[in-house]
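Recap from last week: sequence in, structure out.
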Amino acid sequence: MKRHPFEPARLLAGLTALIVGVGYGLDALGLWRAPGLWLFLVLPVGLALSGTAAAWTSVRRHRTPPTAPPPPTLS
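Predicted structure tokens:
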């Protein structure tokens, strides 16, 4: 299987969507009374953090010299 680089921005965006979705889901089921303003504000804050992580990752990858790929293994 081809390996792909770790992308923290996608992780943060996914966790943000998961938190908002779970919060609204639990509120809809009546298991948790979610403060609407807090859940509404989690989305832009999470996306801003995701954008910051994407910019940081991009700068970091372009400044470091590429590493040699690992030698092929016999599997």
